[in-house]
Structures are given as C-alpha cells and as structure tokens.
Write a structure and sequence with these properties.
The complex is a heterodimer of chains A (244) and B (441).
Chain A: E1 6-15, E2 18-28, E3 33-38, H1 44-51, E4 57-64, E5 67-68, H2 74-79, E6 82-85, H3 97-106, H4 112-125, H5 127-131, H6 142-154, E7 160-164, H7 172-189, E8 192-197, H8 200-206, E9 209-214, E10 217-223, H9 224-229, H10 231-239
Parallel strand pairs in A: 3-8, 3-9, 6-7, 7-8
Antiparallel strand pairs in A: 1-2, 1-4, 4-5, 9-10
Chain B: H1 3-8, H2 17-40, E1 41-45, E2 51-55, H3 57-81, H4 92-119, H5 124-149, H6 158-175, H7 179-198, H8 206-226, H9 228-231, E3 237-238, E4 244-245, E5 248-249, H10 257-261, H11 268-293, H12 296-306, H13 308-313, H14 318-344, E6 346-347, H15 354-367, H16 372-388, H17 396-410
Helix pairs in contact in B: 2-3, 5-11, 5-14, 5-15, 5-16, 6-7, 6-8, 6-14, 7-14, 11-12, 11-14, 12-14, 15-16
The chains are: A alpha/beta (244), B mainly alpha (441).
C-alpha cells in the first residue's frame, strides 16, 4: 500500500492547561472519505484546527504527502491545498456569493481556465449557488450557506477537504443533499475528504473508514460499515443520539 | 399630513387621538423638566460677582409647545408610513429613476468639484471651506481603508495625520526639502508608524483595539508636546514653506508663477492651487482604494472584517493583511497631514486632538462603512454643514447632534450602506441583494 496522504502520529495539543488531544493517530489515504465521530468536546474540531496549525501541536507529527507540516503556519497550510470548511459555515455575510467563492480561489494560484472549470464544478454540484451568485452571503438559507462554505473550500482545488460538521443545524433533507454532494465529489473527482460529524449514522454510511474519538483519544477505528455494526457505537452515537 | 388621514385609516391600537395626545403630553412634560433649567432660567455672574438670574418662561413655553406639536406630527407620520417592518415594494419606474440618479451623483459631484474654483473664484471663504472639506474627504477615505474595509476600529487616526504634518514641517524647515520630496516621505513615515501600531494590536479586535488606538493617538500628541527640542512643543512649528508648482513658487516675486506666465499676481492663485492639489491627492486616495478593493489584498481586508476565523481557514495571512490595512490607511493620513502643514504654514499639537479622530471616524460611519461616495458626502455634510449652521452659534452643536441622531435612525448603516460587490463571475443573474432581507438561517 502506498503511503497515506495525511498521517497523524501521537498528536497532542492543548488550550492552556487543558489537554484536548492526548496522542492521536490517524491516517487518510488518497481518494478516501474518512469520518471522525465523537461526542461534544471529544476533540474532533481541535484535531482539525491543529492540522491547520492553530492551536499548535505540543507533540507528535502531522505529515501531508510525505512532508512534515507540523510547524507550518496556518496560512501556508491552505496553500498546500488542504481546504477546510469550518464549523458553523462561517461564510462572509456581507460579501456576495461570487466574492465568497473568489476568496476561496485567491489562496492558490490558478489560471482563469482552471478557475472557471472548478467554478463550473461547484455550480453543477450546488445549482442553488448559481442562482444566487450576486446575492449577499448573509441572505442565504442555512443549507445554502453550507453549500457556499463547501464551494468556497473547493475553489482552491484541494487535495484534501476537511469538513467540520457540515450537517450542523440543517434539516435532514438538506443534510442529505450535502452528504450526497460529498459522495459525488469523492467518486467522480477522487477527492479525499475528512469529515468531522456528530451525525454518526450519516457520516459512517458515507465514509470508507471511520475513527471514533473520546476525550482526546482515538478509541476505535475501522471501516464505516464495521463501525456501524459495533454495539458500543450504536449505543453511544446512534440509538440515543441524533439521527439524520 | 392632517388628522383626516387618520380617520380614513383607523388602525386598531395606536391611531386613536387619545393615544397620540397622551404620547405628546408625555414628551412635552419631559421637555418641560429638561428645559426648565436649561432655558427657563438664565444665570450669569453679575457686576459685583454675585449670581444674577432672570426667567425666560416665554422661550420655555415655545419649546415645550414645539415638542408637543412635533410629537403629534411624528406620530402621525409614523402611522401614515405604517409599521417599520412592513415590506414595501417600490414601483419599478421609481426604482429605475432612483438608481439612475444614484449613478449620476458621483460624476456630477466630481465635475462640480472641479469647477468650484471657477465658480467661486472671488469668494475666498468658500474656497477655503472647499479645501477643508476635501482634506476631510481624503482623511475619511484613508480611514475608510482601516475601518470600513478591514473593519479595524481605529480611534487614533489623527496620529498619522500628525506624523505626516510634522514630517513635512520638520524636514522642510530643518533641511529645506521641497514639498514634493517630503510628500512621499511623510506618507512612508506615517505608514511606518501605522505598522508600528499594527504589531501590538494584531490580536485585538473591536473595543480593545479601539482603546489601544485611542491611546496611540494620545501618545503621539503628547510626544509632540513634550519633545520640545525637536517639535517646538506647544509652540508648534512655524514658517513652513508653501508648496510650489514643481519648483515654481506661487509668490509675487520675479520668479513667481504669475510673473512667468505674465499675468497679474493674486493671492487667490495659491488657494486655487491648493484646492487642486488636495483634490488630486484625494482622488488618488480614492483611485488606489478602488483598485485595491478589486485585488486579492482588498478582498482579504473585507473578508477580515467579516470573519477572521474563516480568513485563516482560507489561507489568508491575517498578520500581513492587518498590517497592510493599517499602513495603507496611515499613509493616506500622512499625505493629508503634509498637505495640512503646507496649507497652514504653521502647525501645533492643538490641531491633532482626539476631536479630529472622532470627526473623521464620524464621517466614515455616517457615510456608510466602506462606501467611497458615502464618505465624500458625509465629509461634505459634516464639515460643510457645520459651517452652514454657523449662524445658529451655540445651537449649532444641538442641530448637528440632532441631524446625526436622525440619520442613524433612518439609515443605520450610513448614508450609503449598500456595498457593491467587486467580483462578478456571471452577469446574467440580476437578483438585487437589496430586495432580499438578511436571514440568519
């Protein structure tokens, strides 16, 4: 097997004295969808942020495509074409949809043709964005904002797309549309995706492999369907928890 | 607006005459309490130093009556207008006409500005006022980069104005450098101080940033006051050379511009020259800002104003983005400062108080953060309007405060609160964002 696209080994990170990651190991192979699930405060978002260099890793290593990127500043990580759709969407509300998308494209240098192509791809995935191209971001509905956040991340033509809770606060039908789009991106474009979710059922069905995080540690790993069958997962995240 | 409209449209609650009267009475009572001491009784130190007073109940009654009447009028207007959240559909014809005039405002204003020295050639007062207005337009546009685009609340903008003014004043008086050499130097020095201010406040936002920038403005002023050997302290710097037309002085002498052109010398020449100088500088500021807004750095400024976390996720270097915003804004402040020094011929720390920062910030906020035209209109209204009400002497501030309050009620986002996008990926879609209410879904 070839070396993974992203490899995390023994990663530790902390906010002040509170240790949020206590030695995390995780691998993502090119072309995979990997789901990271866990309860509130397990450290899922922190892991994503730490890959982006904020907070800084206290120990351990993050390797992207064979290069160590542990100490690389946040703004340069995006230039390696690791894109992120942060938790809570965080689109730019007063800027138009077109400007929001352009912000994503500003990171990496690309020709006009490449930009037009990726824009066309985003519009094919999310036709709603094309309809609302000159509307202000803040006037979009929650689902449209999530589409915009993903579209914006895609504009940098990422090699690895990291999504933090894409279904947060969305109606089940809209959430399904978002997940379908992610699946399409993976199957047709071969995009590698790391998806952080509380919606374990959806995420694990979508993902090739999954990791379960508890209190800053990976406690379980396996393929999506394997994890879905595990009784402890069902008890902790599916039956009692939110369903999509 | 009369009471007859009221009878035509009886609304369930608020429209009753009793309600309006009650509201007006309450307003009148509040006015009575407020103004009974402010207006009703006038006190003054008598000839023997004792306090003498006299009553002005007539004035008081007039004001209370005005409040009473005004309250009724406002309430009637409000009912005629309907609930504030009602969706109003403006007829397309009116909309079209409005957008047409809207597009014409800027060019008309610009042409008029160019013609001001021609029209008002004999009226020195108006020319001086126009120069002052343009100075503030330029300051407003400079601060607009920091506050309006990058969203960094800067209460110490006057510091850069001062740095620019003192740079030119000291370089010119000590080393005899000409205005045209000093102008870029003043801009560079101001930009340098902008970066210097930028570093410690990189992690601050909002209120905290405002306090630090406020302090920075005061520090610069206090340093100028106390560094007597360099800046002359409170006495200021005098004898600052007047600007020359690229080396040709605008003076009555043999080598002056008038003599060379063979026309009769007039002191107005210099005023007109200063007018076009500041106009050119202001337009340069505007042009640079508009250009920058269309570049990635300008977009990054605006994105930074919207959401810093998202900016980082998109790979924007927030450090350099903030520092360039501070530096760019400060540079324009420095240019304006150099102009101020050469125009006045004398500068002292008194010209660079917090009052100035507040005034420029008010111009930016009133104009609509980020809107170039709005800032220009606000500067015109603030500086020109302030002069317009000079006849009202001490009530000038009152009128002015009232106008600002009203403006903020009717246009909370400033005169021109609408922000036009800089990126159009496809032009075929024309859903105006104005017609869509902002949602938080």
């Amino acid at each position: 097997m070839t070396s993974p696209l992203l490899a995390i080994r023994g990663l530790r990170a902390a906010y002040g004295k509170i240790e949020a990651l206590k030695g995390v190991d995780l691998e993502i192979n090119a072309g995979e969808i990997v789901a990271l699930i866990g309860a509130n405060g397990a450290g899922k978002s922190t892991l994503m942020m730490t890959i982006f260099g904020k907070p800084r890793a206290r120990a351990g290593a993050i390797e992207f495509d064979g290069d160590d990127i542990t100490g690389v500043p946040t703004h340069e990580i995006a230039r390696l074409r690791i894109a992120q759709s942060p938790e809570g969407r965080r689109i730019f509300p007063r800027m138009s949809v077109a400007e929001n998308l352009q912000m994503g494209a500003d990171v990496t240098e690309c020709s006009d043709a490449e930009r037009a192509a990726v824009l066309e791809r985003v519009f094919t995935l999310f036709p709603r964005l094309r309809e609302r191209i000159n509307q202000r971001g803040g006037t979009l509905s929650g689902g449209e904002q999530q589409m915009l956040a993903i579209g914006r991340a895609l504009m940098s033509r990422p090699r690895l797309l990291m999504l933090d809770e894409p279904s947060l606060g969305l109606a089940p039908l809209i959430a399904r549309q978002i997940f379908d789009a992610i699946r399409t991106l993976n199957r047709q474009d071969g995009l590698t995706v790391l998806i952080v979710e509380q919606n374990a059922n959806h995420a694990l069905k979508l993902a090739h492999r999954g990791y379960v995080m508890v209190n800053g540690l990976i406690t379980l790993a396996g393929t999506g369907s394997e994890l879905l069958q595990r009784p402890e997962i069902r008890a902790a995240y599916l039956e009692g928890g939110r369903r999509g | 607006m009369t009471a007859s409209t009221l009878e035509k449209k009886p609304a369930p609650r608020a429209s009753s005459a009793a309600f309006i009267l009650k509201k007006a009475t309450i307003s009148a009572l509040v006015a009575l309490v407020l103004f009974s001491l402010m207006i009703g009784v006038r006190t003054e130190a008598g000839p023997q130093g004792g306090l003498i007073y006299w009553t002005r109940f007539g004035d008081l009654a007039a004001i209370v009556a005005a409040v009473f009447g005004g309250s009724i009028v406002i309430e009637l207007l409000r009912q005629w207008w309907g609930p504030a959240d009602k969706v109003r559909v403006v007829p397309p014809a009116v909309q079209h006409a409005l957008s047409f005039t809207g597009r014409l405002i800027a060019p008309t204003l610009l042409i008029f500005t160019f013609l001001v020295p021609v029209i008002f050639y004999d009226q020195r007062y108006i020319l001086d006022l126009a120069i002052l207005v343009l100075t503030y337009v330029m300051l407003g546009w400079g601060l607009n980069v920091v506050v309006g685009l990058a969203g960094l609340l800067d209460l110490g903008y006057v510091a850069f104005y001062a740095v620019g003014a003192y740079s030119y004043a000291l370089l010119a008086t000590n080393f005899g450098l000409s205005f045209w050499v000093c102008l870029p130097l003043a801009g560079i020095l101001a930009a340098f101080w902008g970066v210097l201010l930028g570093f410690p406040v990189l992690r601050l936002r909002g209120d905290y940033l405002a306090i630090v920038t406020l302090a920075f403005g005061e520090i610069i002023r206090l340093v100028i006051i106390n560094w007597q050997s360099l800046t002359g302290g409170p006495n200021g710097v005098s004898g600052i050379p007047r600007p020359t037309l690229f080396g040709i002085p605008l003076s009555p002498g043999e080598d002056g511009l008038a003599a060379r052109l063979g026309i009769e010398f007039s002191p107005t020449h210099r005023i007109v020259f200063l007018f076009y100088l500041i106009l050119a500088m202001a337009l340069l500021t505007n042009w640079v800002t508009i250009r920058l807004r269309r570049l990635p750095i300008g977009r990054a400024w605006e994105a930074l104003r919207e959401d810093e976390v998202a900016c980082r996720a998109l790979g924007i270097n927030t450090t350099t983005t903030k520092l360039t915003a501070f530096a760019t804004g400060a540079m324009f402040g420095g240019f304006a400062g150099a102009f101020f020094a050469t125009r006045q011929g004398f500068i002292s720390p008194e010209s660079f108080t917090f009052q100035e920062s507040a005034l420029v910030l008010a111009i930016v906020v009133l104009g609509g953060m980020g809107s170039q035209l709005g800032v220009a209109l606000a500067a015109l209204a603030m500086i020109g309007g302030f002069e317009l009400f000079r006849g009202l002497d001490q009530y000038r501030m009152l009128v002015f405060g009232m106008a600002m309050v009203l403006l903020m009620i009717w246009r909370p986002r400033g005169l021109i609160g609408h922000r036009s996008p800089t990126v159009y990926l496809e032009r075929n879609q024309a859903i105006s964002s104005d017609l869509v209410k902002e949602g938080h879904g």
